[in-house]
Design a protein that fits this description.
There is one protein chain. This protein is mainly α. It has 3 domains: about 170 residues, no CATH class; about 90 residues, no CATH class; about 325 residues, Rossmann fold. Helices cover about 55% and strands about 5% of the residues. It has a 7-stranded mixed β-sheet with strand order 1-3-2-4-5-6-7, with helices on both faces. Helix 21 links the parallel strand 5 and strand 6. Helix 11 packs across helix 13. The two termini are about 40 Å apart. It holds the Pfam family DUF726. Belongs to the TMCO4 family. It is a multi-pass membrane protein. Keywords: Membrane, Transmembrane, Transmembrane helix. It is found in: Membrane.
């Protein structure tokens, strides 16, 4: 990775000494160790269950009473011992143990590739890195011993200092101590960019690589926004390069057809064919440099192409990375899934801040053209994908509108539509009855029916989840990490999808999951499987005020512990958030998705869309308050809601377009 010219910045110029390069490789190694600890913790007892159980006996009573004391049962101690025993049995089942073994096998294979590529790029020996690791461990042990001593000497002062410390990144992305923080911030940012390119040179960008980069960002004391900016620039550069390479290949092919000399026909056809299939050579590299040069101003082109490796001049590899430039998720590849689940489609969400005039993809979007001839939108496609899945549909807008809060400048958002017609029937039967004030009599009548709409929706959600898992395993998203977000029955689609991924031992596909108001059990065994296939965060959002969910779920299932009503306990790595102050009814989730994502710490949220979401909810609540005393028909009430939302979105959209047009050019 030497610079192509003396003035260019490269990895070697950022880390000029062998000690710097060994330190960089050590940071990569230590951060992968942190990821492995997370994998290990998934299949271990939680801290609460590991804590020693202490019996509560009164010593004073024993001193006073000389007789034989009556045996007392500490019910909390007994319950904790029982929970620990049950949890150990769950973790020791053959199914969980097989998932654990497969998870470690995948992780160790991925880590081996990452560390080998890192050592090759930095030109350091693995023995040197292992030696540095031992020295680092000894130093950390010494510091920890000294810290414990200081805590005993001045406990109060140490606590005060710890409380005053603040970090830019959440503690879940644990930083490892490194001397690289002594570099200037600009150099640390360029180093992070180099490491992103280095990981992409493996021709894939799994979820583990993304989480690794978050730990590295924290270790280099860089905000997440720096990593997001690098990802966006790299995606833009790769797609620009692929566009130029494809265009040059087409031009050469036309030139070959018009050539008069057969010798030159053969020569030009060979060159055109080489460029078309993406063989790295004298033609592809300059075109790649021309494309990447427009976005990489800090690094030299020689360093960029060297770090990317084979990906630098191969359009097919770039197409595979982005899922054939995004066409796999909206093209013919999805047609076979519609045979299993009716109306199964990924709908691109294209009304972010990239282009205020651009609207959502039509619901009947046609398959896109093949990547060889399709115009590639380098601004739209990103290195990460987020799929939002709605649940309680009350209007046609509910499939896409809740996910407008996803920021398309940092990721590529999609909405999953699955059997909307069936949900329309369920809505008219179930939620329409609730809107008409038939609670609880209406629910009691519905619950008596074996195939009530809620039960049918649960079954169909389970089917849709398995189909979604198959689509992700087939790499419809390309080689990019996926974040899944869903509310109501939509979160059950995600639940079923993750369990299917666990059953098929498919790892590295999912970065984060957010399950909101989920009609799924909160038992620890299935959530352990879910945690095992998610590389990043597993978030359960619940509301204790969601009485509709509690009644419907328990009326159609023998299980009483519902994740949408309570926290998931005893599973390491599962985060629980109570949003009872935001949600007092199951149908409210649809209008607070943005605020929930902000509360749980999801960074990729568009603040302007969240404000619009708040305005819509206020308008609907005011409309419902005025119509509360009347006995309006169910359908009319829903039409009012849809009209209100369309009116507010149109009005806010016009204001945004006006602001864009008023900007000086």
């Amino acid at each position: 990775n030497e610079p192509s010219s003396p003035g260019e910045t490269s990895l070697t110029s950022l880390l000029p000494t062998p000690a710097h390069r060994v330190e960089c490789a050590l940071v990569m190694l230590l951060c992968t160790d942190e990821l492995r600890k997370s994998v290990t913790a998934t299949f271990e007892l939680s801290e609460e269950l590991q804590a020693p159980v202490q019996s509560q006996s009164s010593g004073s009573e024993d001193l006073i009473s000389f007789g034989t004391p009556k045996p007392e049962i500490d019910r909390s101690t007994y319950a904790k011992k029982q929970d620990r025993f049950i949890r150990k049995q769950e973790l020791d089942t053959p199914e969980i143990q097989a998932l654990k073994k497969a998870s470690f096998a995948y992780f160790d294979t991925w880590r081996g590739k990452v560390l080998k590529r890192t050592c090759d790029a930095l030109n350091v020996r693995a023995d040197s890195v292992r030696l540095a690791r031992k020295q680092h461990a000894a130093k950390v042990a010494t510091i920890e011993k000294q810290r414990q001593h200081d805590d005993l000497v001045d406990w109060a002062r140490t606590n005060t200092e710890d409380d005053s410390k603040t970090t830019e990144l959440p503690s879940r992305y644990k930083a490892v101590p490194t001397t690289l923080i002594r570099l200037e911030k600009e150099k640390r940012a360029l180093l992070l960019q180099c490491l992103v390119l280095l990981l992409l040179s493996l021709e894939t960008y799994p979820a583990h690589s993304r989480i690794l980069l978050l730990h590295i960002s924290s270790s280099l004391q860089l905000p997440i926004s720096t990593l997001v900016e690098h990802e966006s620039k790299i995606a833009h550069g790769l797609l620009e390069a692929a566009t130029q390479m494809s265009g040059e290949a087409s031009r050469k092919a036309v030139a070959a057809e018009n050539a008069t000399t057969s010798k030159w026909k053969i020569g030009l056809a060979t060159v055109a064919g080489a460029a078309l299939i993406g063989v790295t050579g004298g033609l592809a590299a300059p075109l790649l440099a021309a494309g990447l040069g427009t976005v990489f101003t800090g690094l030299g082109l020689g360093a960029v192409t060297g770090l990317l490796g084979a990906l630098a001049g191969n359009t097919l590899l770039i197409a595979g990375l982005f899922g054939a430039y995004g066409g796999n998720m909206t093209g013919k590849m999805m047609e076979r899934y519609e045979k299993e689940v009716e109306d199964f489609k990924f709908l691109p969400i294209r009304c972010g801040r990239d282009d205020p005039k651009e609207k959502h993809q039509p619901l009947d979007s046609t398959p896109q053209r093949p990547p060889a001839v399709r115009t590639i939108s380098s601004q739209r496609h990103k290195l990460r994908v987020t799929i939002g899945i709605s649940g309680s549909l009350t209007t046609e807008l509910d499939t896409i509108a809740p996910w407008s809060v996803l920021d398309s400048t940092s990721l590529e958002p999609f909405a999953l539509r699955w059997e909307y017609a069936k949900w329309e029937i369920a809505r008219r039967t179930l939620f329409g009855a609730l809107a008409a004030g038939l609670w609880p009599l209406g629910l009691l009548k519905i619950a008596r029916v074996v195939d009530n709409p809620f039960s049918v929706a649960r079954v169909r959600a389970d089917m849709a989840g398995k189909v979604l898992a198959d689509a992700l395993i087939s790499k419809c998203q390309g080689e990019r990490p996926v974040t899944l977000v869903g509310f109501s029955v939509g979160s059950r689609v995600i639940y079923s999808c993750l369990l299917e991924l666990a059953a098929r031992q498919s790892f590295g596909l999912i970065e984060n999951v957010v399950l909101i108001g989920s009609p799924v059990p909160s038992d620890s065994a299935p959530w352990t499987k879910i945690r095992g296939v998610v590389s990043g965060r597993v978030i359960n959002v619940y509301s204790t005020e969601d009485y509709i969910l509690g009644f419907l779920y328990r009326a159609s299932s023998a299980q009483f512990d519902v994740a949408g009503l309570q926290p998931v306990v005893d599973v390491n790595g599962v985060e629980n958030f109570d949003v009872s102050d935001l949600v007092n009814g199951h149908t409210k989730y649809r209008y607070v998705v943005g605020r929930i994502l902000q509360r749980v710490g999801i960074e990729d949220v568009d603040g302007e869309e969240v404000e619009k979401e708040i305005a819509i909810l206020r308008a609907i609540e005011m409309e419902e308050a005025t119509d509360e005393e009347g006995s309006t028909a169910n359908n009319d009430a829903q039409v009012n809601v849809e009209d209100i939302e369309r009116d507010i979105r149109a009005r806010v959209g016009e204001e945004r377009r006006g602001r864009v047009e008023e900007r000086p050019r």
